[in-house]
Design goal:
The protein is mostly helical. It has helices at residues 3-10, 24-45, 61-82, 85-115, 130-137, 139-151, 159-184, 190-194, 197-226. It has one domain. 70% of the residues lie in helices and 0% in strands. α4 runs antiparallel to α6 (139-151) and α7 (159-184) packs across α9. It is a multi-pass membrane protein. This is FAR-17a/AIG1-like protein.
């Protein structure tokens, strides 16, 4: 196999950097996983009423997103270590969901927090230290976006699948939140307490729209970063 053929196997023609690889790709995935572990450590070191409630911390969209991000980067790091193109494809498949979700988490959290921190933090919860706040609500979106822009082939997802995924996730989460409420008698986010059912439905519909918009924004930026060379032309 000549040099060009080997490069096509290791890197898509429209992929900015080589991945899977044991250099930059592995460093990004390992660094991301270290940040995610730092966030989980906070949950363990600072137990609160959520620990003993139905659904644990998985009631929070933040923790669901963090778990998906962890799964994505775990598979990504495994692909770097083994140089497995099959695991690399699995990582890219997971990223189609985990990356827009983390962008959604960041937009909703920081947007609502700017309006009123009491919308996202219950009265009994102390403010998160800055580093943990960023590790929960900023770093996952940043590192997943970097992975998409620099280390992934172009996304081929179209409008219909993106909208279907966003609706399933948004209203699936609504069902999960209501199930937890039926057991616990409280919602994970105070904003849910302040909204009546039609308003909550509107909020989840808006979240689905933001998720879908995030998917296409990431896809568009990826195209701008990686250019529009014809398949078969290798960059670098």
């Amino acid at each position: 196999m000549d040099y060009t053929a080997r490069k096509l196997v290791q890197r898509h023609p429209l992929q900015w950097m080589e991945s899977p690889s044991r250099t930059a790709s592995a460093a990004l995935h390992a660094g991301g996983l270290a940040s995610f572990a730092y966030s989980y450590k906070y949950l363990i070191d600072h137990p609160n009423p959520i620990n003993d409630s139905y659904g644990w911390h998985m009631q929070y969209l933040t923790i669901i997103g963090l778990s998906l991000a962890t799964a994505t980067f775990t598979v990504g790091l495994a692909s770097d270590i083994t140089l497995s193109t099959r695991l690399f494809r699995v990582k890219n498949f997971l990223a189609v969901t985990s990356a827009p979700m983390e962008v959604l988490v960041s937009i909703l959290y920081w947007g609502l927090r700017a309006i009123d921190p009491k919308l996202v933090l219950p009265s009994w919860a102390p403010p998160l230290p800055v580093l943990y706040d960023v590790s929960f609500h900023g770093v996952p979106a940043i590192v997943l976006t970097l992975d998409i822009l620099l280390l992934s082939p172009p996304w081929t997802i179209s409008v219909a699948p993106a909208c279907i995924i966003s609706l399933i996730l948004a209203f699936g989460y609504w069902f999960w939140v209501e199930l937890c409420y039926s057991h616990n008698g409280f919602y994970p986010y105070p904003i849910f307490e302040q909204l009546n059912p039609p308003s909550r439905a509107a909020l989840f519909a808006l979240s689905a729209a933001v998720f879908a918009a995030s998917t296409f924004a990431l896809k568009g930026v990826q195209g701008l970063v990686n250019g529009g060379e014809r398949p078969g032309k290798v960059k670098g």
